[in-house]
Structures are given as structure tokens and as C-alpha cells.
Amino acid sequence: MTIRTGRLTRTLAAVAAIGLCSAAAEARDIVWARYGDIDTLDPHKATSTLSLQTWSLIFDTLLATDKDGNPVPNMAESWTVNDAGTEYTFKLHDGITCHDGSPLDATDVKYTVDRAFDDTDPSVTKASWGPITSAEVVDPLTVKLTLETPFVALVPFLADSFSSILCDSNEGAEGFGTTTAIGSGPWKLVSWTKGDKITLARNDDYTNFGKLAENKGAPYMDGLVITVVPEPQTRLAALKTGEVDIAEPPFDDVAMLKDSGELDIVVAENTGQNVFWEFAVHRPPFNDKRARQAVGHATDAAAAINLIYGDLSLPEACPVSRGVFGNDQDVCLEYRTNYDPEKARALLAELGYGPDKPLETAMLVWTGGNRQKLAEVFQAQLAEVGIKADIEMMDIGTMNARVRQENETAEGKGSMDMMTWSWYDPDILYALWHSPGAYRGYTTPELDAMLEKTRVLTDPDERKAAVQAVFKVLLEDGIHIPLYTPGWEWVFAVRPEVEGFHVAPFVYPVFNDVKIAED
Q1: Could you tell me if 363 and 417 are in contact, meaning their C-beta atoms sit under 8 angstroms apart?
Q2: What is the pLDDT of residue 263?
Q3: What is the pLDDT of residue 489?
Q4: Among 108, 326, 100, which Cα is nearest to 205's?
């Protein structure tokens, strides 16, 4: 695909400065502006939503989700499970092709699973694949996964982009994850300029077997450019001039944009996202649960969310979000450290902190989504009870690495962070809090056993009770303090000439149906 600049005749100086003048292609592309960049093109090496969204365009998955977030067939036209729940056999559709023209078959599925479990360099979400012991090619269109024990979260996991099927031609390919990414999804990688843009081209051979799009063939548009535009007002300016087709608008302007009708507003629902406080628990002060509980009691999430987001987000009481199995606001409100500044002060006093000796901590926050302003509100709330939190803003990839570093550091000032995860099942808690933990944070043998129980119970009522028992531990001990569900934070502003754009559950934008009317 040849990039040209002639289309961008109306670009603002600020937009030109960030490189949007090279975003459009000779044939009409969709231009999607986001606040940040991906971590990697390799689905086994990152966890950020920005990365997940991109993987879903390049790669495909064995299963997909329907409009309610339930798993349905996709690349796998059917599957069976043995009575013990330890063997899953998937029958693939015939005729699926990789972007390099090679057929996608059971060997590619085996390659993907084996790679996720590689002893020397496993997937960062290895735990979420479950206790898979082998992937066997039964025939070119049949693959069998054998598990050590039953794992009820495997089926929904195989509909998520963490389980993207990688064509085995990626093995040994130069630059896989940076300059190479061979999948079978609706869009093919052309290039990725880190910190600037990702350029994709339509996969003319694509067949949509199960994804949420009316179009069952290749996307209608020739290409898709995902460009990084950190400043909200710059994104809005580019939307208004037509240099960008789809972007996250400034949250403060959403109501005005809705009223004006100048741009269409698409709101993502059923995101599965949960934003929460977590702590470096292997050193003071947060190795004492009273310090963690004090933060929980000092935080008035409802007031902060209302101030910054209005009705675009909801406060969350549970460690998993609304719509995810086990979520029950009343149950979680009974267990969690609810807003009570006097109780926070009393706990801090027990620890030796007071007006003349505040508890000091870093507060790590990732960029975008008005989180700087939100963090400042939380900072002020904490200060009222005697907690001095120094805000450190960074991109989500940097923050993920920093959180793990803080957990592996035995000395220094306290550290807490505003983390977010998007997931479709409470098994996310296993990834976060089962030894060794996604970020090497809080773990105990007792919690490990409880989390393991949530993975094998097939009776829904029994599993729900086990999941909520885990909630109780996480909430009462201030290990995972929920803040809000940004189910309405993922807002997309769309140019009026763009038709067919929508967002699937768990914040996956779908471009297969998009058509852009000519000027």
C-alpha cells in the first residue's frame, strides 16, 4: 500500500506536527485516532486494551462472542468436551487462509498453544489458558486440547484476543511482534511505526464465521490506519476537519457533541473493565493490611467518578465488573472497605501516622481517559485523611512493567497504582492473584486454593459461591479495591459520513461493516 499526503489539505498545524498528514492512503482508508500506542503485535507479550483491540483486527480466534458476550463458534465450527471436562476437540472451518497465503489449519492452532506454554518464554497470560498439557493435531481440520484438570473458563477465553491464532509461518519470521504479524483476521499488517501509527490493509480472503458484523466477507474499505494522538482536543480538531474518521473525544465535550449532532457518538457497553487500587505489598507501608484498608476507606469513588465522568462511568463494588459472572453489588458492598474517612484516620493512627507524619506513597496512573484529573481528585481525598500520594503518569505498558518492579523491590517509599483489566470471566482473579501473580503482588497458599476451586466447579451455583468467597478475601483485606467500571468511558466520536461502525463486547471496535461516503 502506497502512502500519500495529498488528501490532507486541511490539516491543522497541531495535527500535522504529530504526523497525521501521512495517515491516509491512496485508496480511501478508515483513520482511527487513539490516545496511545500498542505494546506489541505479539498477543503473547502484552495485556493492554489498546493492544487487544489491534490484535482482534489482524488475528482471528477459534470462538467469538455474541452481543451479550457469550461464546459462539467462529474459526472452529463446532467443539466437543469429554465427560471429565479434560479434552476439548475443535473442528475447524475449511478454507481459512493466513495473510501470507498459506492455509490455516490444526497445525497453526497447535503452534499457537505450544508457543503460549513455551517453557523459556511463555505467554504473559499463560495462566488464563488453563492447565493445558497438550495440543494434538487429529487431522488437518481437527485439533484436541488435553487438560490436566477441568477448566470452565477455557471456552470463553478462546473467544478473546489473548487466544488469537497465530499462523505458524510467524515462527522464525524476522521482527515478529514489531514488523511482522501474520494472522487470518480481516486486516493485514502493512507497517507499525511505534508511537505514531499502524497501517493495515484489507484481507480480501477473509471470511467472517462468527464475529459481530453483518458483513461476512472482507471489510468494505481498503485500509485502516490507527494513529496515535495523545491530546484530546487535537483528536477532536482532526475529527471536525475530516482528517480522522473515528476517535475518542474529550470527555468534557461529549454532552456538547451529542447535543450538536456534529459527530455521531458510539458508546461501548459490556466492556468487562474493572479499575482498582492495588499495592506493593512486600514492603511497608502496604505490607500491613491496615494501610491498604485506610486507602479504601479514604476513597470516595462515587463522588470522584461523578465529578470527572458524570454518567459516562459507574462506581464498582466488586473485583469483577457488571455483567461478569459472580458480580453482585450488594454482596461486595458488604465486604469492601467503603468510604469512611474517620475509620481511615483511625487505622493510620494505629500505624503511627498522623497530621505531622503522613503516610507517603507513589500513585501510578496510566494516561488517557481524563485519568490525570481523576487521580487528582483521589489524591485530594487521600490527603484529607493523612495520605500523601505523589501522582506519576505513564503509558499503560510502562505502568505494567513498573508495577511488577515495585512488587519485586523490598525497600523504598510505598507504591500503589490505579490498575485496569478487561475480562469476560472471574478467572481474571486467578491471573492477578494466584501465585506468582500477574505482577508478583499479593499471594497466599490459602488464596491460591480458593482460586483453583473457582476453575473446576461446573455447577453455576457452587462456582458463584466460590467466586464470591474470593471476593471476600480480596475486599476485606484491601488487596483489590474496586473503583469504577468504565463501561461508559469508551466513547467513540464518529464522522457523519462513516456508516456501520460499532463496538463488540469487551471493547472490540468492529470495522468490517464500515463504509465511508465520498465527499
Answers
A1: yes
A2: 96
A3: 63
A4: 100
What pLDDT does residue 519 have?
64
Neighbour tally for 155: CB within 10 Å? 16
Read off the amino acid at residue 421. W
Q: Report whether 288 contacts 280 (CB < 8 A).
A: no
Euclidean distance between CA atoms 96 and 418, whole angstroms = 41
Query: What angle do the packed helices 445-456 and 460-476 form, to 10 degrees?
Result: 150
Q: Per residue in 433-448, pLDDT tens?
A: 999 998 999 999 999 9
DSSP tag of 229: -
φ, ψ of residue 318 to 5 degrees: the values are -105, 160
Residue 12 confidence (pLDDT): 38
Hunting for cell 497501517 — which residue is that? 199
First to last CA, the chain: 22
Contacts of 63 (CB under 8 A, 6+ apart): 71, 72, 73, 74, 75, 76, 79, 155, 156, 158, 159, 210
Neighbour count for residue 177 (Cβ, 10 Å):
18
Distance, in Å, from the CA atom of 371 to the CA atom of 128, rounded to the nearest integer, reads: 28
What is the Cα–Cα distance from 438 to 427, expressed in whole angstroms? 12
SS3 label, residue 196: coil
Count how many Cα atoms sit within 13 Å of the Cα of residue 140 in the half-sphere of its side chain: 6
Cα separation, 413 vs 389, in Å, equals: 10
Nearest CA to 298 out of 233, 265, 345, 239 is that of 345
Cβ contact 280:409 at 8 Å: yes
Residues in the chain, pLDDT under 70: 1-27, 487-489, 519
Instruction: Say how far apart CA 314 and CA 269 lie, in whole Å.
Output: 12
Determine the Cα–Cα distance for residues 79 and 88; give it in Å rounded to an integer: 7
The per-residue b/e assignment along 51-67, b for 16 or more CB within 10 angstroms, e otherwise, is bbbbbbbbbbbbbbbee
**pLDDT, position 488:** 55
User: Residue 411, Cβ neighbours under 10 Å: how many?
Assistant: 7
Give the three-class secondary structure for 354.
Answer: strand
Give 101's DSSP letter.
S
Q: What is the reported pLDDT for 27? A: 61
